[in-house]
């Protein structure tokens, strides 16, 4: 599992630049990022190289941020994953691909998902 941040930003020019500059100026590097539009706001989902520092920096900047544990696995095993999740009633809230042919998956029941994945012998990565 890895920690992922969901940051809620106004959907206007410069807001993403502010986030990127804030992280860079504090020596925090992005390992993965996904951006989704939600009306007047955008949701930036990201994985960084220093979780604790990133959370403190964003909170100090009064950013609306949530932290979630997400699954990181090989994209090639997605067929098996969706089948076992369906059988066990586990929902994928969202997913996005990252480098090295891997996929980040947020599920509605992480505890159950981990048991199912272990039983299916699917490798979960702790880092990108």
Question: Helical region count?
Answer: 4
Can you write the helix and strand succession as a string? Answer: EHEEHEHEEH
Q: In what order do the strands lie side by side in the largest sheet?
A: 2-3-1-4-6-5
Global shape:
elongated
Averaged pLDDT, please? 96
Q: Please compute the radius of gyration using only Cα atoms.
A: 16 Å
Kindly state the percentage of residues in helix: 25-40%
Q: Find the structural class using helix and strand composition.
A: alpha+beta
How many β strands by DSSP? 6
CATH homologous group name of the largest domain: VC0802-like
Please state roughly what percent of the residues sit in beta strands, choosing from under 5%, 5-15%, 15-25%, 25-35%, 35-45% or over 45%: 35-45%
CATH architecture of the largest domain: 2-Layer Sandwich
Keywords for this entry:
2 domains, VC0802-like, 6 strands, 6-stranded antiparallel beta sheet, 128 residues, alpha+beta
Protein model, in words:
With 128 residues, the protein is α+β, with helices and mostly antiparallel strands. The protein folds into 2 domains: 2-69, VC0802-like; 70-119. It is 33% helix and 39% strand. The chain has 4 helices and 6 strands. It has helices spanning 15-25, 51-60, 78-88, 110-119; strands at 2-10, 30-38, 41-48, 64-74, 92-98, 102-107. It has a 6-stranded antiparallel sheet with strand order 2-3-1-4-6-5. α3 (78-88) crosses α4. The longest helix has 11 residues, at 15-25. The model has no long low-confidence stretch (mean pLDDT 96).
